[in-house]
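Appendix B, example 12.
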Amino acid sequence: MTLKNIIDILINLKIEEIENAVMSELDNDTNVQDIMNALTQGMYSVGELYEKREFYLSELVVAAEMIKMAMKILEPHLNSVVKGHGKKIVVTTVRGDTHDIGKNILINMLKSSGFDVIDLGVDCPAEKIVNAIKKSGAMVLALSSLLTMSMEEISVVDKALKDEGLRDQVKIIVGGAPLNLKFAKKLGADAYAEDAVSGVRKIMELFD
């Protein structure tokens, strides 16, 4: 088994092979960072196919699940350096919204890219988000909102961070079907991503 096999397994969505491929690399004493780089490269290739409309959401979900399975095997072997390069990000779906498919795909892609992800789940109140930012010192906050009625919660989070004097230390990126960049900015966000693939790219830009 080679690292190229891991990339090919991801691109071809062979979900039944990913765990054995990762375990085989570990058994062969392959550097964990190299395995993660292969997973990242494979996921980026899947993302490119998605952007070209050769893959659809269902394929993206399968690839993200494969990343999750691989990361579960790798996590005991990760040291603090590999686990995020010091780049912490808080991810959650805002209060009033319980959708999590897009959020979970984003989280798995971020983890495969080496980010240290703090997942607050769904239907998350602003106070919990503020506490997570305080405790973690995360520099980026990713908010998901797929319901029109929950979008205004983004501005509630923005205000809560300002009230605690934390807004200047954290960038907010938002995503969700009803949103666009103009409305996201109006609600107080710094950036907008239309899907998980572009979200990872824009999050990297926010850190840079």
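The chain has a mean pLDDT of 89. The chain has two domains: 3-77, 88-207.
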